[in-house]
């Protein structure tokens, strides 16, 4: 049986091993994916054959800065228990440091990088190793990197033990102000810096929704337009950072806070663990019964 790219991907998804290891195992197993899994398990490279089928929706985010470079990542595990242990936390720091230093283009490129300080193994190798130790699927879900100039400053903040992290780039030099802005981003979850960044289709969609509101039925078109215009302004104020009420002082906008400190916000990234991942729900009684009956 031919070893196709699709087969290699399927084996990687099931076992979390590297691309070359997956390909070698499939070649040795003549394309039989179950035999390839057994071969990898025999070599200690795949602790659980079905690990790739599990959902890793817990974990931690982490943000790190060093000079003019910064990185923010989300590393996932299956349970928050594993996310809290030393092996996972050491992995989190090592992966973030590697990404910060090398600034890779995407997750695939990041996984292929030698680990900072451990040049004999890749990020993917280290993730597999910790996955074997913990018995859980661990994945590098996403990351973002940033660079700043001499006239700029990073704002970095992690909330609730890493469940949420934010990284912002601001012009100016006040690191405390930058951190306060990052704290606000973590707490309030804006989607854009300002109105100018909101895509036209997002505004059009919201306008469509508002025009269809039941409370506008029967009202003259000119009244509808004025009411919808006001609602769009409120919508934009809710999702844009500069228009939001500052979390540490509700009497001023974020825009006013940064302006009074002679700063401007260039960009930001906010990660919250598991956002957008559909978590598996399990019935404990059913799981126990299943184990007893097997």
UniProtKB/TrEMBL annotation:
This is Elongation factor Ts. Gene3D superfamilies: 1.10.286.20, DNA helicase RuvA subunit, C-terminal domain (1.10.8.10), Elongation factor Ts, dimerisation domain (3.30.479.20). SUPFAM superfamilies: Elongation factor Ts (EF-Ts), dimerisation domain (SSF54713), UBA-like (SSF46934). It is found in: Cytoplasm. PANTHER family: ELONGATION FACTOR TS, ELONGATION FACTOR TS, MITOCHONDRIAL. Its main location: cytoplasm. Belongs to the EF-Ts family. It comes from the Bacteria. It comes from Fructobacillus pseudoficulneus. Associates with the EF-Tu.GDP complex and induces the exchange of GDP to GTP. It remains bound to the aminoacyl-tRNA.EF-Tu.GTP complex up to the GTP hydrolysis stage on the ribosome. Keywords: Cytoplasm, Elongation factor, Protein biosynthesis. One of its GO terms (molecular function) is translation elongation factor activity. InterPro entries: EF-Ts_dimer_sf, Transl_elong_EFTs/EF1B, Transl_elong_EFTs/EF1B_dimer, Transl_elong_Ts_CS, UBA-like_sf. One of its GO terms (cellular component) is cytoplasm. Residues 79-82 are annotated as: Involved in Mg(2+) ion dislocation from EF-Tu. Residues 70-275 form the Translation elongation factor EFTs/EF1B dimerisation domain.
